[in-house]
């Protein structure tokens, strides 16, 4: 429980920070981008500099967008949805990329999975993040399995299982901390956003991993009860 409390404290501090910062940063970014494009038109021989500046701007913009999702869980709108359909569309979205990385994406589900109350957009974002992390953890070729099953009477478990590099035990507790990344081009915001989305859906997320064997992430979500989650 102490560990859980610590994590949600971190999330709320980061959320407050993000809410303030994101807006302040976004507006000047948009105007900078516009003026850069105007200048680029006049200084055609300096194209290389502009390419770098524009790509740096886009990177800042990307980081701010990741933050915005975390910052505004109250802006999420919920409706009754079919989780398997959501996962199928996520897999369709990432399949080409997976094939290019020699990764096989597999979805397994029980036939009697009940509906849930959720924001489809945010759940898609959640599983896109988990699958992308899994793909990035697979060095050569491998498999990512999504297994959907009923857990008790009132929860659905989505297990995302990869056979990638795994995560050392001592690093597991850092997952979900803002900016914790082991990747050169990582933001370290993906998992934090995942925890935030799951929390907003009144669910839980567990991460288990073994170095050299792979990582298993369980997301538990409450089934539809007729009232708002
Ligand atoms: P990023 O992907 O930008 O690094 P994330 O918050 O998505 O940020 O992930 C944080 C870190 O957690 C990653 O840098 C990686 O070290 C670790 N991680 C997350 N998912 C996996 C996974 N499936 N297998 C191995 N490591 C993972
Ligand atoms: Mg990530």
UniProtKB/TrEMBL annotation:
The keyword ATP-binding applies. Transmembrane segments: none annotated. Keywords: ATP-binding, Kinase, Nucleotide-binding, Phosphoprotein, Transferase, Two-component regulatory system. Residues 20-225 form the Histidine kinase domain. It comes from the Bacteria. This is histidine kinase.
